[in-house]
Amino acid sequence: MLKNNVLILFVIFMISACASEKPTLSGVDGSAIPPAFAHFPDIPFPTEAFVDLDETKALGSGENWIGSLVYTTPYNPSSVFDFYVSEMPKLNWIEVATVRAKISHMTYVRGNRAVQILIEMDSGDSSKITITAIPNANGVGNI
Fold first, then answer.
1. Contact in structure between 131 and 115 (CB atoms under 8 Å)
2. Where do the structural domains in the chain lie, given as residue ranges?
3. Are the CB atoms for 87 and 101 separated by under 8 Å?
4. Helix, strand or coil, per DSSP, at residue 134
5. pTM of the prediction?
6. 67 band by pLDDT with thresholds 50, 70 and 90
7. CATH says 38-143 is which class?
């Protein structure tokens, strides 16, 4: 009986320890895409990202979508900025400009598209991210 109680307490302890861990940012190298972002495979998203359906205005899917995608994540803006600096080149996006500030701005181009990423503080230590994709008909900034 004591052995069963110890085992149950151990399992409860392990589950509660896992639930309280701060999530870690994952890259595009094999990590799962959150289901809400499956229509946007050309953009990396951190784990624990939650789309804001009220503010998102996107048309299309795949690598041809345009519009603005808004999501929140429990990571601080600095971590999200570092995430995009690391992950965008892995998907062949070319950095045009980045500004790390209270509201950080990042601009990337790839093929006939350009994206701007805005990262700002949300509530607590979390972040609100707005990604806007537009056509880049002239291929400006492409190598």
1. yes
2. 38-143
3. no
4. strand
5. 0.75
6. very high
7. alpha beta
Most distant pair of Cα atoms in the chain: their distance? 74
Amino acid letter, 21: E
pLDDT in tens, 68-97: 999 999 999 999 999 999 999 999 999 999
First to last CA, the chain: 69
Specify the residue for token string 């400009």: 97
Copy the structure tokens of residue 34.
């959150």
Query: Half-sphere exposure (CA, 13 Å, Cβ side) for 37?
Result: 23
Quote the CA–CA distance of 41 and 35 in Å, as a whole number.
Answer: 11
- The closest of 69, 47, 67 to 59, measured between CA atoms, is 67
Q: What is the pLDDT of residue 33?
A: 54
The token pair at 70 is 């808004």
Of 83, 129, 70, 86, give the one whose Cα is nearest residue 105. 129
- CA dist., res. 141 & res. 143, Å (int): 7
Asked which of 34-48, 58-72, 95-109 is least confident by mean pLDDT, the reply is 34-48
Q: Which helix (H) or strand (E) holds 85?
A: helix 77-87
What is the amino acid identity at position 93?
W
